[in-house]
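Exercise 7.
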Amino acid sequence: MSPPAATVTARRRTGRHRTVVRRRRRALASFIGIGALVLVIVLALPLFRRAVNDLTLPLSYSDVIRQQAAEKHLDPALIAAVIYAETKFDPRPSSAGAEGLMQILPQTAEFLARRSGATTFTVADLGTPQVNIAYGSYYLRYLLDLYKGEEVPALAAYNGGTTNVDHWLVFERQQGRPLTVSEIPFPQTQAYVAKVLDAQKRYRQTYPSELGYS
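Solution. The predicted structure, written as tokens, is:
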């Protein structure tokens, strides 16, 4: 004997209701899962960016860089960019004898020590990051003053020496033009200056708070 029509209808309604409830529960679970995933991504994004920056554009000793930039009237991103181009904040011995984060030659450091009036300087001091950054920043300021604030010849001199840069400037002036990156005749120095100037822009954009821009 078949069940009454009303019973069949009630069962169908109950079945549809259960189906709807299951679908809603699955949708809610999916929504919660997606929301949790988004939250994890949002929370992890700064850490991920930091990890990428540490690999591609590292920055250490930002407090020392800010201090030296203020004392020497330099762009802190320029100091960071020179360190990046020289050692990527991982100092290692140079075949030419340059030392520390900013790869300063002992004879250059001794010249800077005499010029600044330092009386207790030793070459071993260049292995101390704070001292190295101070001397490298002093040298950058000296070169910028020497070349009337022009970054291209100053950076070229940091890498290739003032004697070479002076010769290049004389030639370029005879041609009636300034010394630009593309006119630097030493490929290594040309690539170095281009690298520093590019890194300077990137440090400003990537580390505005760490370098004191905000």
